[in-house]
Amino acid sequence: MREIEDRAAQAYRDRFGEAPEVVASAPGRINLIGEHTDYNGGFVLPCAVERRVAVAASRGGNELYSADFDEARPMTKSRDSSWADYPRGVAWAIGEAGYKSGAFRAAFAGDVPQGAGLSSSAAIEAATALALDALFGLGVDRKDLAVLCQRAENEFVGVNSGIMDQYASLLCEKGAALLVDCRSLEARSVPLDLRSAGLALLVCDTRVERGLADTGYNDRRAACERAARILGVEQLRDAREEDLGRLSGEELERARHIVTENARVLEAVEALREEDFRELGSLMYASHASMRDDFEISTPELDLFVELAREAGAPGARLTGAGFGGCAIALTSDSDTLSRNVRQKFAGRGFEEPAFYEFRPASGAEVVR
Ligand code: GLA
């Protein structure tokens, strides 16, 4: 077991005085490329990171315990706007889908940075879903579990997210990114061997509170839907670059990002197949520019990180996740120098001190006991 899984199992034993029947864990994610494309029926290319949420659980009882907050909450059908809404939502969605689960008690521990845009919420959902599937022998496949987790997030927690984060947490494989067609919900692993190319994936958490994230996210969704309506297509996935001339203003800018971003994801997969990391990187820079100028979800901190990565000769960098703060990523052969320089320049500009993580593409959710 990983350390975090041990911690959940130990917390369970301390709290409930016995060993848990099941221990499961699920990772957070970064997205290599393909931002805000998921709810437009398009393509995304996330990979799991080496930070996880673990859950230890048994049948019976009705308590949820968080080792991180040292806090117990009842397993109810109602919400209280706390971390417990995620496992509650997953249990609710499983019931709504007609599966027979039952009462359970569980202890959670996690090391996915929270509120940074690394999908700690998808990780707790995915870990809970997999644990409940094992506890009650539901036999639900992972894609369906991911859809249940998204439903929990949309309808129970009340956040209008797409399918990317839950898919990444449940379906990613070690050493690979995951290409997801968010319309057909087909997914396949794309090998991502950075190490043999002498590269690492550096994540910079700008520590900018994603305060406007919810309104900004919903505004972007609404603008994309308006653009699709004007173009007479079901989703922007179906729009082509030559259609964009029929749009103007905000709808044009938002749609241009989605249409070009979908194309970039497929080109990125091709670049990875050819192990052409320079090409992958330039697609990442182009993606960032599109998010900064057309989708308008970047911040001065994210832009500065990407600029410094470019100046340092990093093959690629971009913001990752919903935007409006949170994290950016860079492909780099020298994480130490880049992060040192970024720290210095952030201080000089009076920005919050950023946090850095170096990740290798990690495994998706697992039942470990
Ligand atoms: C958040 C959402 C995802 C996706 C990204 C942007 O992470 O949860 O569904 O829309 O933003 O790509």
Describe the protein's architecture and organization:
This protein is α+β, with helices and mostly antiparallel strands and 369 residues long. The chain contains ten helices and 13 strands. It has a six-stranded mixed β-sheet. A four-stranded antiparallel β-sheet has the order 10-11-9-12. Strands 2-7-8 form a three-stranded antiparallel β-sheet, with helices on both faces. The longest helix has 25 residues, at 249-273. The radius of gyration is 20 Å and the shape is globular. The mean pLDDT is 97.
Strand content: 15-25%
Helix/strand-derived category reads alpha+beta
Helix content: 40-55%
How would you name the oligomeric state of the polypeptide chains in this document? single chain
Specify the biggest β-sheet. 6 strands, mixed
Rg over C-alpha atoms, rounded to the nearest angstrom: 20 Å
**Which shape, going by the Cα principal axes?**
globular
What ligand species are in this complex? alpha-D-galactopyranose
List the helices and strands and how they pair.
Blueprint: H1 3-16, E1 22-31, E2 43-44, E3 46-59, E4 63-66, E5 71-74, H2 85-96, E6 104-110, H3 120-135, H4 142-157, H5 164-171, E7 176-181, E8 186-191, E9 200-205, H6 213-231, H7 249-273, H8 277-293, H9 300-311, E10 316-320, E11 327-332, H10 335-348, E12 355-359, E13 366-367
Helix pairs in contact: 2-3, 2-4, 3-4, 3-5, 4-5, 6-7, 7-8, 9-10
